[in-house]
Write a structure and sequence with these properties.
It contains ten helices and 19 strands. It has helices at 2-13, 71-93, 148-162, 166-175, 223-232, 281-292, 328-339, 365-370, 395-399, 402-411; strands at 24-25, 36-39, 42-45, 103-104, 107-108, 110-112, 115-117, 178-183, 186-191, 200-203, 211-214, 238-241, 258-259, 267-268, 298-303, 309-312, 344-346, 354-355, 388-393. With 413 residues, the protein is an alpha/beta fold. Helix 3 (148-162) packs parallel to helix 6 and helix 7 runs antiparallel to helix 10. It has a ten-stranded mixed sheet, sandwiched between helices. The chain has a three-stranded antiparallel sheet with strand order 1-3-2, with no helix packed on it. Strands 4-5 form a two-stranded antiparallel ribbon. The radius of gyration is 36 Å and the shape is globular. The chain folds into two domains: 18-48, no CATH class; 103-411, no CATH class. The model is unreliable at 1-23 and 47-71 (pLDDT under 50).
């Protein structure tokens, strides 16, 4: 035992000058006592918390905290951090109410964008059920085109909401017997006399998504239901719905195109068909929204008795244009292909899709307009703008709409 002891004493005596005075060797098979730790080959007291560079060292698990950081101080720091985080979340989630303290009629105003408007008594969506509408009926000859002053007042009202001027918007609406109100950030225009066949509009001024158009809600059943439910998903900018049956006028539109929708002999479209006349309030609203939201895609919803779905950008395969390789129409077609078990057809060549020359919407005046036609009533556009989708759906798909809603949610989140 004596030689081993002598070696240990010799080792300690020869240690470098930087060795702590109360340290002894450790490492390998040699452990330190419980009150010490192994540092750079030597056992040092655990309260020696200053390293060679003068910086405080990690005390390790089980060490006591500094004297000035007790449980109360730690709790205070945690509380302060949590309070700051909560304030950051609230500041991000809650936007100031521009209408706070303002009264519209007999109740507090409701905001739609920056405009303060009268509150809708039953919510915005109650105005968009066909069950609650009484339009001019088929073959009644009860529909007449509105006067240009009427159209101007309606578009001026919508424009005023977009500019954040609620009183001006309500004044223009009342000039032509439109009821204007708001709920959940959505402005709603509804004419007080359904028998006139005027369109209804829902507008979400803060959104920059799709504009949904329903030109035939009383002829192509449940197209309005689909449009309303897509709008409810929250990304759509506007919903424009015709207030008349498409066959409620005996007078033919001067716009080009023929149809068997209102007769068996392939006559021209009727004045009461807003998808095929440029003199309607419906079309004027479309033109305004397409201008105010230049990046928005216009989706015109339709129905037919066949199986499947047909998507068109208003251009037909025989128009000589190239295949569709990108854009919202192709994205929606791809999404539908994954969601439904019925055929998905397109009117121009597109990878993975069948091509058809039926239900392509080439005479639709809203499509012609956003595709850049110099005369939407009479001239087909030279090219597609990628801003128009003419969507025609089977009866089955219009009844069971969940797959359609999922597809819309993927393309227009």
């Amino acid at each position: 035992m004596k030689p081993a002891l002598c070696l240990l004493v010799l080792f300690v005596a020869c240690a470098p000058d930087t060795q702590p005075l109360d340290a002894f060797a450790c490492g390998g098979d040699v452990d330190c006592p419980l009150d010490r730790r192994c540092t750079q080959g030597y056992c040092t007291l655990r309260n020696d918390d200053v390293g060679d560079d003068g910086a405080a060292q990690d005390t390790g698990e089980g060490d006591e905290p500094d004297e000035d950081v007790g449980p109360d101080a730690v709790a205070d720091d945690v509380m302060e951090d949590s309070r700051a985080d909560a304030e950051d979340v609230l500041s991000d989630a809650v936007e100031p109410d521009p209408c706070q303290g303002q009264i519209c009629g007999d109740a507090p105003c409701v905001a739609a964008g920056g405009a303060c408007l009268t509150s809708c008594a039953a919510g915005w969506n109650q105005s968009f059920f066909t069950e609650y509408m009484a339009p001019p009926t088929s073959d009644s000859n009860a529909y007449e085109l509105p006067h240009t002053d009427f159209v101007s007042s309606v578009t001026a009202s919508i424009d005023a909401v977009l500019e954040g001027d609620g009183p001006l918007a309500e004044r223009h609406a009342s000039e032509v017997r439109y009821v204007l109100c708001a709920a959940d950030g959505v402005a709603v225009w509804r004419h007080s006399m359904d028998a006139r066949g005027r369109p209804r509009v829902a507008l979400r001024p803060t959104a920059t998504g799709v504009v949904l158009e329903v030109p035939h809600p009383f002829f192509e059943a449940r197209t309005l239901d689909l449009a309303r439910e897509v709008f409810e998903q929250g990304s759509a900018t506007a919903l424009v719905v015709s207030g008349t049956h498409r066959c409620a006028s005996d007078t033919e539109s001067v716009c080009t195109g023929v149809t068997t929708a209102c007769s068996d002999d392939g006559r021209g479209y009727r004045l009461s068909d807003p998808g095929h006349t440029t003199g309607s309030t419906f079309h004027a609203i479309h033109v305004l929204l397409a201008s105010r939201f230049p990046e928005a895609v216009v989706v015109s919803l339709h129905g037919f008795v066949d199986d499947g779905v047909v998507l068109s950008d208003g251009i037909q395969v025989d128009d000589g244009l190239s295949a569709i390789t990108q854009g919202p129409l192709l994205a929606l077609a791809d999404a539908l292909l994954n969601e439904i078990d019925e055929p998905v057809l397109v009117c121009r060549p597109a990878a993975g899709h069948q091509v058809t020359d039926s239900k392509c919407g080439t005479a639709n005046v809203q499509g012609r307009h956003v595709n850049g036609s110099p005369d939407a009533c009479g001239i087909r556009p030279a090219e597609a703008s990628s801003r128009f989708v003419h969507l025609t759906l089977s009866t089955t798909l219009r009844r069971a709409r969940e797959p359609l809603l999922r597809a819309f949610g993927q393309v227009f989140p």
